[in-house]
Amino acid sequence: MRPASSAPPAPATTTVGIVGGGPAGLLLARLLHRSGIDCVVLESRDRAYVEQRQRAGILEQGTADTLRACGAGERLDREGIVHHGIRLRFDRRSHRIDFPPLTGGRSVLVYAQTEVVKDLIALQLAEGPPLVFGARALAVERADTERPVIRYAHQGREHALTCDYVVGCDGFHGIVRDAVPAAARRTYERGYPYSWLGVLADVPPSCDELVYAHSERGFALFSMRSPTISRLYLQVPNGTDPADWPDERIWDELDARSATDGPWTLARGPITAKSVLPMRSVVTEPMRYGRVLLAGDAAHIVPPTGAKGLNLAASDVTELAHAFAHLKETGSTELLDGWSDTCLRRVWRAEQFSYSMTTTLHTDPGQSAFDTRLQLAQLDRIASSGHAAAELAENYTGLPFARAAVPTSAR
Ligand SMILES: Cc1cc2nc3c(=O)[nH]c(=O)nc-3n(C[C@H](O)[C@H](O)[C@H](O)COP(=O)(O)OP(=O)(O)OC[C@H]3O[C@@H](n4cnc5c(N)ncnc54)[C@H](O)[C@@H]3O)c2cc1C
Q1: CA 285, CA 2: separation in Å to the nearest integer?
Q2: Which residues line the pocket of ligand 1, CB cutoff 6 A?
Q3: What range(s) does the FAD-binding domain occupy (predicted)?
Q4: DSSP 249-260
Q5: Distance separating the N- and C-terminal Cα atoms of the chain
């Protein structure tokens, strides 16, 4: 494998210029490479930073299938943990949602985003296409022409990459979106009056599945990264400073919010990382302007309650790889022309699910006792109706991708 430090500088031209080496950009590059379509990935951060950035951890079956089909499934199948259900905890009771019978056999996989990113980076550095770390895109120029240009800074110098297409996989704070004139795009947005305090702890998870806890003290989520590392979240007010949450306070609050009349012991251990994650729902439409396309968090974000962000990024780029492969094989832009609409149907479905999970489980600071009773009625409905449980299970395990996991040419 070629070490990152000796990665060659990007060529001056390419077919698909990809800004951002997160899950969306890396997976797209992998799929294009397997279809014989040349591309370059520009990533502003260094390799270590990108590989250590703590974020999502739940892979839908469609995401895992895409990773497997493009050759990135070996470690995922060895180390990923299949989960067939989740637990809802409310009103001091626990209810398990059993996915397979509700979804025709679907489940999810616990495999951290950090590991997905490590696997894709290792493959790309070994096999190509070019992946340039420390390359910060400054602007996309000539977006309305057939040869858009990415201007970027690398090792103190400015460079230009001329492309047939530019794909912005540069996340919520990226710059590619700015290449689309304000009059040509519309942003739909909703904020939430709370954030998540997320911690990593060196302690085995207290439950073998994720526990989503509704409590009048606020929401809590008990998740995991591996059999020995717990990932835990507490709803906190916006603007919370993690320094105001010493470890004991975090464990006490997790305990209080997960109280149940059934058996439950929360295992405590050393907390190794703490961060605060704001909650937002944002969609930019359309996801394409001429030859500039936006995928993943660059186009849309969801509150993490439904575990959809990483999975939406994967479905966007899987669909996009199909469209580029179709263009290469047939000369037709038909799939590319319909790509934004195809993705947005799935995106809005995931936005609705994430919103519904979030507002059902969290306590709004202005919430009345009536609002709380409505939340509990909804949770009770999920616990007692097969139809309501199936609706949750189908959305959680992920609606099927529009097409098969990867283009045939990329297998
Ligand atoms: C702080 C945080 C915590 C999260 N936690 C969870 C969670 O717990 N559970 C969950 O389900 N989801 C979570 N998510 C959502 C999920 O991680 C994202 O949906 C997913 O990372 C989207 O992948 P992406 O490739 O589209 O964007 P990103 O992962 O954001 O990748 C974008 C990449 O572009 C690079 N970049 C940005 N600007 C430039 C530039 N100008 N030039 C070159 N490169 C650039 C960035 O360095 C980054 O590597 C979290 C997201 C964030 C931001």
Answers
A1: 39
A2: 19-25, 42-45, 50, 55-56, 113, 136-137, 169-171, 174-175, 277, 296-297, 304, 307, 309-310, 313
A3: 14-354
A4: HHHHHHHHHT--
A5: 21
Residue with tokens 């699910």: 353
Q: What is the CATH number of the domain that holds 357?
A: 3.50.50.60
pLDDT digits (tens, 9 = 90+) for 37-47: 999 999 999 99
Is the peptide bond prior to 129 cis by the omega test (within 30 degrees of 0)? yes
Q: Respond yes or no: is residue 212 known to be catalytic.
A: yes
For residues 28 and 368, is the Cβ–Cβ distance under 8 A?
no
To the query of whether residue 83 is one of the catalytic residues in this protein, the response is yes
Q: Please name the residue whose Cα sits nearest to atom 50 of ligand 1.
A: 55
Which tokens belong to 289?
Answer: 């302007």
| Domain span including residue 343 | 13-83+108-190+280-365
Instruction: Report how many domains make up the chain.
Output: 1
The residue annotated as part of the active site, out of 23, 165, 396, 407, is 396
Q: Is residue 79 part of a domain?
A: yes
Between the alpha carbon of residue 17 and those of residues 27, 63, 273, 327, the distances in Å are 14, 23, 34, 16
Query: Considering the domain boundaries, does residue 144 fall inside one?
Result: yes
Determine the length of the chain: 411
> For 237-340, where are the E strands, in sequence order?
271-285, 288-289, 292-294, 300-301
334 belongs to a structural domain: yes
Q: What is the mean pLDDT of the chain?
A: 94
Tell me whether residue 137 is in a domain.
yes
